[in-house]
Design brief:
about 120 residues, mainly alpha, two-stranded antiparallel ribbon, 2 strands, elongated
Length: about 120
């Protein structure tokens, strides 16, 4: 029902939200020795999520998750680069907002149709 109603936007909104949490976790652990920064490969995760919804393949819960490779490794083993995380967070926030606008527009269209406007 979700895929038929919202297309890919429902799954995309969920993934953008999950990615926001992963990036926020990276930022929160920027000073934690040995912490390994993670991310979500949005395209791979979205493909896996849509394939799972269609019943094409079974994917694990970790589909699309990747470990970040630091450009300047830290001496304590932490791979979080705060500037990189902040940029990724901002980009994801803009993409989340755009996806939310698509979903809101679809809901508004359906609401108007039900009201007979």
């Amino acid at each position: 029902m979700n895929e038929r109603l919202f297309g890919i936007h429902g799954a995309a909104l969920t993934l953008r939200s999950e990615r926001m949490g992963v990036i926020a976790s990276n930022i929160a652990n920027a000073a934690t020795p040995g912490y390994k920064a993670r991310d979500i490969d949005f395209n791979a995760a979205l493909d896996a999520r849509l394939a799972k919804q269609r019943g094409d393949i079974t994917t694990g819960a970790q589909a699309g998750q990747v470990w970040r490779t630091p450009t300047m490794p830290s001496l304590d083993g932490n791979t979080v680069e705060l500037n990189r995380e902040q940029v990724a967070f901002a980009e994801n926030a803009v993409a989340y907002s755009a996806t939310l606008s698509f979903v809101t527009g679809k809901v508004n269209t359906i609401t108007r149709a039900l009201k007979g406007e």
